[in-house]
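Input record (Table S2, row 291):
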Amino acid sequence: MRTILSAPAWPYANGPRHIGHVSGFALPCDMFSRYQRMAGNRVLMVSGTDEHGTPIQVQADAEGVSARELADRYNRVIVNDLTSLGMTYDLFTRTTTLNHYAVTQEIFVRLLENGYIFSKTTLGAISPSTGRTLPDRYIEGTCPICGYPSARGDQCDNCGNQLDPADLINPRSKINGETPVFRETEHYFLDLPAFAEVLGSWLQAKAGQGPGLGRAGAARRLAGPAGQTHLRVVRRGHRVPVGLDRVGPALRRPRRLAGLVAVARGRVLLLHGQGQHRLPRRDLAGDVARL
Ligand SMILES: [Zn+2]
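Output record (zinc ion complex):
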């Protein structure tokens, strides 16, 4: 008997998911898990709703509710839909549980301690009316290469070139049409190219075991500069593990990283010490639905 972790993608809780989404994120894994159970293997199929990031905040602002209220509502909608469709998750949780924060923090802190996270100042787009950062895909403008008027901040769909939002001609926010302000802001980056060799050989070793594994492009991508720009771990707060946010902004400055690690470690240990079964009921009520 084999022990198998089946890990479907986490649906985003900024709205109901339609049947096309479900056929993409849940159905293939559900079929795989059912087969493995029938074959006598021990399967753990785990997923949940992704409840962080700009799309949640944008939708919450549009509906005049808090991000938490919005995520609570769509978590329930998605759980009900997946249950009604008969998906066989062993655990369906959320990214807003204390356990999720603790694990995320631990990964962040370990990477930081081992030198795989570095900070860099780049030009970031800010919404002048809200003061919030605008992710690249929320900016639209004219492509500086081909002149296509609806190029996205990260890529032009007409000529296919990757873009930097600061290079767009007449950039505008897709949320409210205003012109973003570009300011130098500090971000944390994951040094993915540092893992290129080890991940590259792992991918090579898995070649032929399934689609998507062992593709030469994946290893090449890891080694290139795209590895750094595409895997930005932290962007102005909401990507920082929540516990680190609560530590306070001063501690997030690079010269005080040592302090951040010390404090964050204390917090991680504390959270781990609680154990999920001992979390306050209000944190678990509705968070974890066994489908
Ligand atoms: Zn273009």
